[in-house]
Amino acid sequence: MGDWKTITVPIPSSESKNISQFTSETNMSPSSLYSQQVLCPSLPLAKSVHSFFRAFCTEENVDQSISYLDQELTTLGFPSLCEESKGKEVKRDLNIVAVLNCIHELLVLHRKNLLAQENVETQNLKLGSDMDHLQNCYSKLKEQLETSRREMIGLQERDRQLQGKNRNLHQLLKNEKDEVQKLQNIIASRATQYNHDMKRKEREYNKLKERLHQLVMNKKDKKTAMDILNYVGRADGKRGAWRTGKTEARNEDEMYKVLLNDYEQRQKQILLENAELKKVLQQMKKEMISLLAPQKQKPKEKAEDSPGAVQSDVEEDTSELSKENMWELSCETVREQLTNSIRKQWRILKSHVEKLDNQVSKVHLGGFKDEEVISRQDHEQETEKLELEIQQCKEMIQTQQQLLQQFTTACDDDTSSLLQDCYLLEEKERLEEEWALFKEQKKNFEKERRSFTEAAIRLGLERKAFEEDRAGWLKQQFLNMTSFDNKNSESAFSGSSDQDNLTLYSKPGQKFYSVSSESSLCTSKLTKSLPVSPSTSELFQTIHHLSTNSRVLNVTTEDTKPNQVGRECTTQRWSMASRSDSQEGGCSGSRSLACTDSSIEHRDGLP
Amino acid sequence: MNFSEVFKLSNQLSRFSPNGKFLASCVQYRLVVRDVSTLQILQLYTCLDQIQYLEWSADSLFILCAMYKRGLVQVWSLEQPEWHCKIDEGSAGLVASCWSPDGRHILNTTEFHLRITVWSLCTKSVSYIKYPKACQQGITFTKDGRYMALAERRDCKDYISLFVCSDWQLLRHFDTDTQDLAGIEWAPNGCVLAAWDSCLEYKVLLYSLDGRLLSTYSAYEWSLGIKTIAWSPSSQFLAIGSYDEKVRILNHVTWKMITEFGHTATINNPKIVIYKEMEKSQNLEMENLPFPPTKAAASSLFNTESKYEVVSSPVSLQTLKPVTDRPNPKIGVGILAFSPDNCFLATRNDNIPNAVWIWDVQKLKLFVVLEHLAAVRSFQWNPQQARLAVCTGRSQVYLWSPAGCVSVQVPAEGTC
Question: pTM for this one?
Answer without folding.
Answer: 0.57
